[in-house]
Design a protein that fits this description.
The chain has 214 residues and is an alpha+beta fold. The protein is built from seven helices and five strands, in the order H-H-H-E-E-H-E-H-E-H-E-H. It folds into two domains: 78 residues; 122 residues, 2-Layer Sandwich (Alpha-Beta Plaits), CATH 3.30.70. The longest helix is centred in the N-terminal third of the chain and has 72 residues.
């Protein structure tokens, strides 16, 4: 074979085979472990990126929640939720609601308030003041009564909720009623009795000093 190829060609082939052997050894001893290290680093980076994306998404959600809470806080503050309960102001608001609702008669009685436990308010060193309100209404139609309650819930200072309501029809539409309407009168055909709860959040100092109602 040497005679056929020649000594030089045999030496060249041997050198090439030896070079391939060195390259294979280098690939096995250095490149493959290095690739494994890089793959581990890549997996670690992917995990870090995934964690960062999760954190960014969580922060985005928390930011949106804070924005919503800020808007809710501003609305509550604007609505007088963080002020002491004033009976004089309540009387004025009820009078305005009666005029705008169309009810013929409205009697609202604000009872003594009590402190309602609330963990979230306590964190802010505040207390929830809870005052029951009894309302007796008379109107030509139950639409006027529901309009009254709607205005009370939306425009009364603080937070007002309707707990119960009982409607009764006092009279039917008769000729006498129709003549009264024609003469410009507003006869009461429906009556209602409603129980409301008035809530505001006041500082703990107001409770200690005996405040909360004016």
């Amino acid at each position: 074979m040497i005679a056929v190829l020649g000594i030089k060609r045999v030496l060249v082939l041997a050198a090439l085979l030896l070079l391939n052997a060195f390259l294979a050894a280098g690939l096995y001893l250095y490149l493959i472990p290095e690739m494994q290290v890089k793959e581990r680093e890549l997996r670690g980076l992917r995990g870090t990126v995934s964690t960062l994306r999760t954190d960014i998404d969580r922060m985005q959600v928390e930011f949106e929640q804070l924005e919503n809470q800020k808007e809710e806080f501003e609305q509550l503050a604007k609505h007088g939720f963080f002020k002491d309960q004033s009976r004089r102001q309540a009387e004025k608001v009820f009078n305005a609601i009666q005029k705008n609702s169309g009810v013929s008669k409205a009697i609202a009685s604000v009872k003594s308030g009590s402190i309602e436990d609330n963990p979230e308010a306590q964190k802010a060193e505040h207390k929830i003041l809870r005052s029951p309100i009894d309302v007796r209404l008379e109107a030509f139609d139950d639409v006027n009564i529901f309009h009254y309650l709607f205005l009370a819930e939306n425009y009364f200072p603080g937070h007002l909720s309707v707990e119960t309501i009982r409607l009764e029809r006092e009279a039917d539409v008769t000729g006498t009623v129709l003549r009264a309407i024609a003469n410009g009168k507003n006869p009461s055909l429906v009556s209602a009795q409603a129980e409301l709860i008035w809530r505001t959040m006041i500082p703990e100092a107001s409770v200690i000093n005996g405040g909360g109602k004016q």
